[in-house]
Amino acid sequence: MKRTNEDLPPMLAFAAKKHTYIWTCCGCGRSRNNINSAHCPGCGHGRCAYCAITRVQTRPHFSGVPDPDQPSSYSDEAIYPQDPPRIRAQPSITE
Questions:
Q1: What pLDDT is stored for residue 56 in this prediction?
Q2: Cα–Cα–Cα angle for 12, 70, 64, nearest 5°?
Q3: Which pLDDT score, from 0 to 100, does residue 92 have?
């Protein structure tokens, strides 16, 4: 059975998602610039219509149900999509 907002406590049912906005400079390609900064800290270019703005979720909305589209932070697949690299033993140097 799928949980709905009616199943959650009142404070959690109305908790909004927290997002922030960042932008990428079209001049130098520097990304993750704070939306409040009008100029790129890398090259000084002023943010314009060609600079891409991205909405980034900083705190997920609590629904009580894991989102199947998002990887779990406790999954080994999120850290090692394949087998972890094997460490080769270094030959010992004897004098």
A1: 87
A2: 25
A3: 61
* Contact present, 40 and 30 (Cβ < 8 Å): yes
Alpha carbons 38 and 45: distance in angstroms, whole number: 9
Amino acid at 15: A
Mean pLDDT by 10-residue block, N- to C-terminus, for the chain (95 residues)?
A: 60 66 93 92 93 84 56 45 53 60
pLDDT at 86 (0 to 100): 56
DSSP H stretches of helix in the chain = 10-13, 76-79
pLDDT of the residue at 8 = 60
The answer to whether 58 and 20 are in contact (CB under 8 A) is yes
Strand partners, 23: 33, 53
Provide the 3-class DSSP secondary structure of residue 30.
coil
How many whole angstroms from its chain centre is CA 95?
51
Question: Is residue 4 within 8 Å of residue 65, measured between CB atoms?
Answer: no
CA distance 47 to 33: 10
